[in-house]
Design a protein that fits this description.
By secondary structure, the chain is an all-alpha fold. The chain is built from 5 helices and no strands.
Length: 117
């Protein structure tokens, strides 16, 4: 097996190990790290596909390139939405401390508990 095929096989095995089940990675990759990887990949595709499309021996068509770019841009959008949703959910648990709440005139959690809406 030549070096290129060996590397390709190793990378394919690595990609498969991300899936759940036996041999899976122990820790998931954080969403922000996934987003950076997708942005890099999208940039590489945008730079590489024109060369591939115009190369006489490459079968990639403009249509194929557009579909691949749209798919990767969709992954990017999905990750951005997931990250934003995660931030919104984390913000639900942000409770101001007593000093900041009293200095702004807001009721603290203890003050609000005794009131009926």
């Amino acid at each position: 097996m030549d070096a290129r095929r060996a590397i390709e096989e190793e990378l394919r095995d690595l990609a498969g190990s991300v899936m759940r089940g036996p041999g899976a990675l122990n820790e998931p990759i954080p969403l922000d790290q996934q987003l950076r990887a997708v942005k890099r990949e999208l940039g590489m595709r945008i730079r590489a596909y024109p060369k591939w499309i115009t190369h006489p021996t490459n079968p990639m068509t403009m249509w194929d390139a557009k579909l691949e770019i749209i798919a990767m841009a969709s992954v990017k959008l999905t990750l951005e939405e997931l990250i934003e949703e995660q931030r919104r959910q984390l913000n639900l648990f942000d409770v101001p401390d007593n000093d900041s709440a009293s200095s702004t005139g807001s009721k603290t959690t203890d003050d609000a508990e005794g009131q009926v809406g």
